[in-house]
Amino acid sequence: MIRIPIAILIAAAVELTPSPSKNDTVVATVDGRPIFASAVALQAAAKPSSAKEALDDLISAEALVSEAKRRGLDQSSEVVEAGKVALAYALLQTFEKEVTKAQLDGASIRRAYDRFKPELDHSRQIDVWHILVPLKKDALPSEIDSARKIADEVERRARELTDLQSFQSIAVNLRDASGAPLHCEEITTERDGWTLTSFSHPAFDQLKNPGDVSTVIRTDYGFHVLYLVGYIEPRHLSLKDAEPLLRERLFPSFQRREFARFIEQLSTAHAVRTFPERLSE
Predict the structure, then answer these.
(1) pTM of the entire structure?
(2) pLDDT digits (tens, 9 = 90+) for 119-141
(3) Residue 192, SS3?
């Protein structure tokens, strides 16, 4: 079965004549319509096939287009609609080429650097999941004993497990003094980072290899048992070094904003009339 280049069929639908690229060469014509060397190269790469086979395919496709036009099929609603879709798609491709990462301004990059600086410029970090048995600061001795017993059970179960998912399930299966599931959360911190040192220092001191489990650790929030995911080595990227990464991260949202602006401009640049009263019909 001959693979008909869709661009040729759509071109016929909307009466488009392909424009040659610079220094392109006409290698054949069908009813006066040129077939360029660049089109042959694209067809050969897409199939793949030799240049002669690709040219034969394009000639066959153009001949089909000519016969379809002779029979008036190019005026059918299906073909016309396909042409509209192709034109819109071609414009979208042009938009994607015109809106690039390089257009992100320096101020946006600097703001992003400040926002993501803890990720881009940090000392060695530890990545852990912890299960917390909460404890009020004014807890009674009996409440402290009760919470500690639950935490001891968390540690006992954790040491019998070998994977993170099983560790996380402990928090679902055990309950605190109020009967609620235990809190389970991932935390990444430096040794002297944003967490309490009563949490981070034991984490760094006790946990060495992924899968390690800590003893019961007490902080102002209660009793914790930690599971080591791993360590994140130091990273110190300057604004200049981080710029390519930041442009990559910011570009999708920038592109969406630019596209919304582009559509708004099109709506004002072209004659648009709406008849909302007819919607009910």
Answers:
(1) 0.59
(2) 999 999 999 999 999 999 899 99
(3) coil
